[in-house]
Design goal:
With about 150 residues, the chain is mainly beta. It has a single domain, classed as Immunoglobulins (Immunoglobulin-like, Sandwich), CATH 2.60.40.10. It is about 10% helix and about 35% strand. The longest helix is centred in the middle third of the chain and has 9 residues. The radius of gyration is 18 Å and the shape is flat.
Length: about 150
């Protein structure tokens, strides 16, 4: 499986190198958690596959199967437009599961633990670390001043 984050902050940013890092849990401000989706591509997942994620001691969140392009693949194709073959296109993927992050996720580092039960009842687990920063702390180049006393 591949776990990525898809947020309005991440979309339409194919022109810089930061988007790939954002998909894998780079800092997200607290005010963007409610618009951020956890996307899990379960390789060879099917209609009888179940997927859920859990953050810390919170209750598990059941994820919904959705037919959509994999945002990771979209980003790779967009990043490599100059060398991409003209016949290669991003297609809808039938083994994607999605769920929103909780809106009340506090600042700090969190582990998104994903649990998959495949059609044969086998369990698979993976995780993605996520850093949530306060809305004011989201700017890493905040100005500061040094005061000297004589």
């Amino acid at each position: 499986m591949r776990i990525v984050l898809d947020s309005d902050r991440h979309q339409n940013r194919f022109d810089d190198d930061s988007r790939m890092g954002l998909m894998f849990g780079s800092p997200i401000s607290q005010d963007k958690t409610s618009t951020t989706t956890v996307v899990v591509n379960v390789f060879d997942g099917g209609p009888r596959t179940t997927v859920e994620y859990r953050i810390g001691e919170r209750a598990p969140v059941r994820m919904k199967r959705e037919s959509r392009p994999d945002p990771f693949v979209e980003e790779v194709f967009a990043r490599n437009r100059a060398t991409k073959k003209p016949w290669a296109e991003v297609e809808l993927c039938s083994h994607i599961w999605v769920a929103r992050l909780p809106a009340d996720l506090e600042a700090g580092t969190h582990c998104i633990m994903v649990r998959v039960i495949d059609e044969y009842g086998r369990e698979h687990r993976d995780r993605l670390c996520l850093e949530v920063v306060g809305t004011q702390a989201a700017d890493p180049v905040a100005p500061f001043s040094i005061q000297y006393r004589e």
